[in-house]
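Re: [ENG-882] Designed sequences occasionally contain unexpected residues at chain ends

Forwarding the minimal case from QA. Structure tokens:
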């Protein structure tokens, strides 16, 4: 799914926006995040030393806003016809809480750092809020997780895919 979404952005923004801008935009989106940004950078032949910091900033930029505002936004949305959607998002997110409850902030780090579907900075920030973790400490831990996920994705995309001649 990530590859298809990245392809969508590359196909539709290519020629309109610089390759680095596409990496940034892709990295802003939930689900895609830094993983998608680095894949987009690789697909667009953006050098890793450019792609990595752009994807990192794009992924981490929304996180303070999520940490600060999401509880208030969810409370407000629960008073609207979107309450069912918010409840489903909370339920789906809380289904992933066992690792974080078991290992605390280290669990949050692992949750964000391992680039698997359904994990990442957005979901980690939401989980942090739903579990009433400290916002500042969560931001630092999520940032370290994004950094680690970026290293893993860089090795997979720019290393493994390049060595296989894919891209």
């Amino acid at each position: 799914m990530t590859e298809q979404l990245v392809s969508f952005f590359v196909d539709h923004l290519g020629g309109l926006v610089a390759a680095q801008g596409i990496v940034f935009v892709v990295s802003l989106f939930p689900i895609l995040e830094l993983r998608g940004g680095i894949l987009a950078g690789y697909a667009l032949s953006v050098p890793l030393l450019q792609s990595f910091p752009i994807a990192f900033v794009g992924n981490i930029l929304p996180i303070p806003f999520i940490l600060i505002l999401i509880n208030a936004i969810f409370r407000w949305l629960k008073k609207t016809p979107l309450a069912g959607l918010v409840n489903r998002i909370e339920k789906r997110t809380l289904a992933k809480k066992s690792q974080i409850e078991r290992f605390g902030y280290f669990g949050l780090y692992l949750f964000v750092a391992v680039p698997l579907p359904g994990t990442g900075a957005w979901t980690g920030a939401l989980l942090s809020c739903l579990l009433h973790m400290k916002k500042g400490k969560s931001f630092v831990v999520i940032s370290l997780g994004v950094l680690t996920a970026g290293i893993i994705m860089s090795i997979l995309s720019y290393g493994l895919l390049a060595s296989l001649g894919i891209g």
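QA comment: On inspection the terminal residues look reasonable. The chain has a mean pLDDT of 90. Proposing we downgrade this to a documentation issue.
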